[in-house]
Design brief:
The structure is a homodimer of 349-residue chains. With 349 residues, chain A is mostly helical. Chain A is 38% helix and 3% strand. In chain A, strands 1-2 form a two-stranded antiparallel sheet. Chains A, B: Residues 53-184, 207-324 form the Cytochrome c domain. Chains A, B: Heme c 2 binds at residues 221, 224-225, 299.
Chain lengths: 349, 349
C-alpha cells in the first residue's frame, strides 16, 4: 500500500517534469506581454503627495451618498469594493431609476489603465471621478452643490485642510477629484495566482490554467489584452472580424468615435482590463453577457475569427480565473455629520 | 501676571466646586433613568451561538445588494454604518425609485430596543431583517429568490455551513435573518460622553450639556426617552398634549394601531431611541424635521406642553450631542462571486 503510494508520487513527478520546462518557456513569453501588479499603490502624476490624509478623505468621499443629488448613490454604489469593483448590473441604475448607457467598469487596478471609461475619455482617475457625479443618469449632482455639501460639514472642511495643506481654499471640486483618485489608486489586487506564477511559482497555476494562458497568447487574445491589467491599455474596434449581434454591440453606441470624432474610431473601445474578470460579470460595455465562457467565445469569434473548442474555452476561462488577486481590505469610513447648512437631498429632477 | 493666572485658576476651581456636588446628585438621578452602552455585543435570545462565523456571514449579507430584486439595494443602503446607521433621507428610496412610508431608523444599538420598526411590529432584529428584503417599496425580493441567490454562490454556501454547523440545510431565509441579526448586534456605540459621565467622569460633559440633561429630565423628556437607548423601549402617542401639524404627523399613518388594531394605539409610536441622534437627521417617522433643535421644540410642545426658551433648547441639544458614541469600525466584506446559476437582477416589477 505504501509502496503503491510512492510509485504514484513518482509517476506524478514524472508527468509533472515536462511542465517545468514548459513553464520556463511560457513564463518567458508571458513576461514579454504582461506585468505583475505591485504590492503598493503607485505614484500619481499631477497628484502629489498621496498622503494618508488624502487617501482617508478620498475614502470618505467615495463612500458618501451625499455626493449625489438624491443622497442615494455614492461612487461605491456602482464600484463596490466588495464585489470586484463593480455593481453586477448590466448597466448601472442611477438618479430617478434611470439606466446608464454602459456597464460600470471596475475601480480595482483602474489606476493602471491607459485612460478611464470604456472610451478612454478621461485621462486619469481624477478626471473620471468628476463624470458620474455630474451625469444626469448617475449621481445628477453639480460641482457647486457638491462643494456646498462638503463645505457645510466641519468634519470635511478639516479633512480637506489636512489633505491639501497650505491651500487657501482647499475644499474644491478639483480637490474632491484628487482625493477620490488617491483612494482609488489604493484599490489594487496583488498576488493573483497568475502573478505568483509569473514571478516564478510553477505550482501557483494548474495545468489547465497554464494551457489556457498558452491558448490566450497563441489565439491572439494577448495582442489586445496585455500589460499590467491584461487589457485597459489600448483601443480596438469591437468586431474586427465579425461584428457581434446588436444585442451585445448596440448600434447607437459608437464608442471612441464619440470622443475623437474620427471615422476609424467607430465602435472602437478600450480593451477591457481582465484583472479579476471572474468577479465582474456581466461583460462587455453593454453588459449583455453574464457567462465568462460565452464572453470568451464571443471575443474569439468577433475579434479573432477563431472557433475554439469547448475544452479550449474552459481552459481560457480557467486561466482568466487566475487573474483574481487579493481583494482590497477597506474599513468603511465614518462620514462627517450633516449640519443644518447641508443641502438637503433632492430625489426629483 | 503669574499671580493673576493663579487667582483665575482658583476662581475657576471655586466656580466649578458646586458643579461636583451637582454632578453627584444629577448622576444619581440619571442612573435611575438611563443605562450605559456595554463595550461588547449582548447575547441574543433565540440566536445561539453568536459566533464570529455567523457575524462575518451577517456582514456579507448586510452589505450585499444582490439581496434585493434589483441588485441595487442592501441593508447598508438605508442603514449606513458610516452615517449613524441611517440613510439621511426623509424616507428611504427603494425599488423603482419608490419612496418608503417612514424614515429609516438607525441600526446602531437597535439590538437594545424593545422591538423593531417605528411601530414595534418586529420583536427582534431577525424578524426585522425579513421585512425590507420583501417590501415592494424597498428591496422587493422574495424569500425564495433570496435563498436561490445565496445557494447559487459556493462562497455563501460554505459560509452558511460554518455559521450554522450541523444543520442539514443551512441556507434558509430564517438563517439569513439570524446572521444579519448577529452582525447588527455588533453595531453598538459605547463610550459616548454621556456614558463616560454616567460612569463617573465629571469632566466628560460640559456645564451646558449637564444643564441640558437636567432639563431633559425635569421637563419630562425622560419619562418616554429612558433606558439604555434613551428611548426605543416603550410606545407613546405622538401628540399627547397637542398634535403637531400634518406635515410632521401625516394623518394616514396611524402607527402602532396598524399592528394592534386597538383604538388607543392610534398615532402611537415607539419612542425614538436618542443614541447618536446628532448623526441621524432628518427626524420623526415622517423625516420632515432636519434640525435637531426644531425637533426638540416640537417634542416639548406636542408631548409636554412645554414652551422652552431658546437657551434651554440649545442646552438640551448640547446634551443630546453627548449621546454620540464611538461609531462601529466595520471592514467592508468581500462578497462571494456570482455564478451562472445566480438569478439576474431585475429592475422592473
Amino acid at each position: 500500500m505504501k509502496r503503491n503510494q510512492i510509485s504514484l508520487l513518482a509517476l506524478t513527478a514524472l508527468l509533472a517534469a515536462p511542465a517545468c520546462a514548459d513553464d520556463a518557456a511560457l513564463r518567458e513569453q508571458a513576461k514579454g506581454l504582461f506585468e505583475v501588479i505591485p504590492m503598493q499603490a503607485p505614484q500619481l502624476a499631477d497628484n502629489n503627495a498621496v498622503t494618508r490624509d488624502k487617501i482617508d478623505l478620498g475614502a470618505k468621499l467615495f463612500f458618501d451618498p451625499r455626493m449625489s443629488k438624491s443622497g442615494v448613490f455614492s461612487c461605491q454604489s456602482c464600484h463596490n469594493v466588495g464585489m470586484g469593483g463593480v455593481d453586477g448590473l448590466e448597466t448601472s441604475i442611477g438618479h430617478g431609476w434611470q439606466k446608464g448607457p454602459r456597464n460600470a467598469p471596475t475601480a480595482l487596478n483602474a489606476v493602471f489603465n491607459i485612460a478611464q471609461f470604456w472610451d478612454g475619455r478621461a485621462p486619469d482617475l481624477a478626471a473620471q471621478a468628476k463624470g458620474p457625479v455630474q451625469a444626469g443618469v448617475e449621481m445628477n449632482n453639480t460641482a457647486d452643490n457638491l462643494v456646498a455639501t462638503v463645505k457645510s460639514m466641519p468634519g470635511y472642511v478639516e479633512a480637506f485642510a489636512k489633505a491639501f495643506p497650505g491651500q487657501s481654499d482647499p475644499v474644491s471640486f478639483d480637490n474632491f477629484a484628487l482625493a477620490v483618485e488617491a483612494f482609488e489608486a489604493t484599490l489594487i489586487t496583488p498576488n493573483s495566482k497568475f502573478d505568483q506564477w509569473l514571478t516564478g511559482s510553477d505550482s501557483a497555476m494548474s495545468e489547465d490554467e497554464k494551457a489556457g494562458l498558452k491558448l490566450f497568447i497563441d489565439t491572439g487574445c494577448a495582442s489586445c489584452h496585455n500589460g499590467i491589467n491584461i487589457g485597459g491599455n489600448g483601443y480596438y474596434p469591437f468586431g474586427v472580424v465579425e461584428a457581434p449581434g446588436a444585442e451585445i454591440l448596440p448600434a447607437g453606441d459608437t464608442g471612441r468615435f464619440k470622443v475623437t470624432k474620427t471615422a476609424s474610431d467607430e465602435y472602437v473601445f478600450r480593451a477591457g482590463p481582465l484583472r479579476n474578470i471572474a468577479l465582474t460579470a456581466p461583460y462587455f460595455h453593454s453588459g449583455k453577457v453574464w457567462d465568462l465562457k460565452e464572453a470568451v467565445s464571443v471575443m474569439a469569434n468577433s475579434q479573432l475569427g477563431a472557433k475554439l473548442e469547448d475544452k479550449q474555452l474552459d481552459q481560457i476561462v480557467a486561466f482568466l480565473g487566475t487573474l483574481t488577486g487579493e481583494q482590497p481590505e477597506v474599513m468603511h469610513p465614518i462620514l462627517p455629520a450633516r449640519t443644518t447648512e447641508t443641502p438637503k437631498p433632492v430625489q426629483m429632477n
